[in-house]
Amino acid sequence: MKIKRIIAGILVAATCGLAMAGCQSNTTGGKLIMATEPGFAPYEYMSGNDVVGIDVDIANEVAKELGMELEIQTMDFDGALLAVQQGKVDFAAAGISVTPERQEAMDFSIEYAKSKQVIVVLKGANREKIAVQMSTVADTYVTDDLKKEPSRYTKYVQAAEDLKSDKVDCIVMDELPAKEMVKGNDNLEILDGEVFTDKYAFAFKKGNTELEDKVNKVLQKLIDNGKVDEFTLNHTK
After folding, report:
1. How many whole angstroms separate alpha carbon 28 and alpha carbon 43?
2. Which of 33, 91, 157, 170 has minimal CB crowding within 10 Å?
3. How far apart are CA 156 and CA 153, in angstroms?
4. Do residues 55 and 61 touch, judged by C-beta distance below 8 A?
5. How many helices (H) and strands (E) does the chain have?
6. CA–CA separation, 213 vs 136, rounded Å?
7. Nearest Cα to Cα of residue 190 among 28, 6, 53, 32
8. How many Cβ atoms are within 10 Å of 139's Cβ, its own excluded?
9. Do residues 202 and 111 lie in contact, with contact meaning Cβ atoms separated by under 8 Å?
10. Is residue 43 within 8 Å of 54, Cβ to Cβ?
11. Residue 4: is it exposed, middle or buried by C-beta count within 10 angstroms (0-12/13-18/19+)?
């Protein structure tokens, strides 16, 4: 079923604060601290006890180029955004879309990836209750553009479980994580087409231009020499 028909049917029918207390940015001490939410494969996800993924590979290259050690702190997505705004980490990388609203609260690196927003559904189900990850561009789209109140989740795995149990009817989310979700669930599918396209960047505390400029130089190098494409391929095979 096509996206426009689904949307037409839809129209008809700070946990981080405590967890991050006392954690401060430490770029001068040889560590580059990154906040992320590791439930967003292939960009960041858990492999055993390690956080891996496209963003992690990029961040490791950035740290190496800057002669620093990457430290990863995991938290909910909105917590990662809050942590970087408060300067408790050096940057956040979690498939973060650049929006005008976020640009008022944070600074961003150059964009290193594009992602289509798609709709994941349970095969054969109705499409009325929408699920999103809290504070994402999908959340904003459903709330502001569709004028609907979605079911909000801190992690996509929670939304997927509710989708499979008919508590929600569809999830609006990024294409690559959607493909990973469907790959592991035979009863889920991605609808044809796309809702909209957005772009990803690293987020920095407002005014942290020194670090941002250094990171941008490395990011541009990784884009130009094909390493970002290589990292993407490695995690989407």
Report:
1. 27
2. 157
3. 7
4. no
5. 10, 14
6. 25
7. 6
8. 20
9. no
10. yes
11. exposed
The stretches in the chain having pLDDT less than 50 are 1-2, 4-26, 28
Q: Is 192 exposed, middle or buried (0-12, 13-18, 19+ CB in 10 A)?
A: exposed
Residue-wise pLDDT for 112-159, tens only, equals 999 899 999 998 777 789 999 999 999 999 999 999 999 999 999 999
Radius of gyration of the chain (CA): 18
Tokens of 71: 């430290």
d(CA 166, CA 144): 24
In angstroms, what CA-CA distances link 43 with 95, 139, 177, 206, 233?
6, 19, 8, 24, 11
Three-state DSSP class for residue 159: helix
Q: Dihedral sign for Cα 62, 237, 193, 117, please.
A: negative
- pTM assigned to the model: 0.78
Find, among 65, 48, 100, the residue nearest to 221 by Cα.
65
Q: Tell how far CA 56 is from the center of its chain.
A: 12
Closest CA to 176 of 35, 44, 2: 44
Report residue 151 as tokens.
């079911």
Q: How far apart are CA 58 and CA 85, in angstroms?
A: 21
